[in-house]
Amino acid sequence: MHDDQTARSTVVVVGDPPVPAELEVVGRTARGPAGAVAAAVARADPALVLVDLGGPREAGLSVIAALLARSPQIPVLAVAAPDADHVLVLDAVRAGATGVATTTDPAEVAGIAEAAAAGRPAFSPGLAAVVLESVVTPTPAIPELSPRESEVLGLVVEGLTAKQVAARLVLSPRTVENHVQRLLRKFDVPGRGALVRYAIEHGLA
């Protein structure tokens, strides 16, 4: 439970986004593994989480999805570079971000962060319209997964390699790769990055 003062000030920072002086940083963590980040945020219980979307796209999106699953009451503000594409912005929102700031200016982040901490949608200028337009896009039916496919998909989303997934599930790497290829065909996506985004967007991992 956060009072209004806290809701405007306490934040956990994931990665290295620009952090406004107006926010009180109560925790910092690198991006990933997503589950560990979500656990650290839950312990700190901030009013807001700032997630840096720089670097590997799937890492930031996996963290946002994990935060939403673990602590849905804590808003997440994703922070991306000014030249970030609209696909990344939409992926962040679908993963569970309350808002997205595409700026390196801490002063600009401050106003957006205040809105996000209050639970209101918060975006850099021009992004809200992009998000609203995407809402009217129909969602195709989601194919059913076997229990093993679900396990493999979850570990791929966490960022594990085929060899690491194989070790975790006591399978051969070739079997894991076969599962991944079936998932790519089943969801009609071109590669692992797209597979991770699909899984996050549709709440499959």
From TrEMBL:
Gene3D superfamilies: 3.40.50.2300, Winged helix-like DNA-binding domain superfamily/Winged helix DNA-binding domain. It comes from Pseudonocardia parietis. The lineage of its organism: Bacteria, Bacillati, Actinomycetota, Actinomycetes, Pseudonocardiales. Residues 138-203 form the HTH luxR-type domain. Keywords: DNA-binding, Transcription, Transcription regulation. This is DNA-binding NarL/FixJ family response regulator. One of its GO terms (molecular function) is DNA binding. PROSITE patterns: HTH_LUXR_1, HTH_LUXR_2. InterPro entries: CheY-like_superfamily, Sig_transdc_resp-reg_C-effctor, Tscrpt_reg_LuxR_C, WH-like_DNA-bd_sf. SMART domains: HTH_LUXR (SM00421). SUPFAM superfamilies: C-terminal effector domain of the bipartite response regulators, CheY-like.
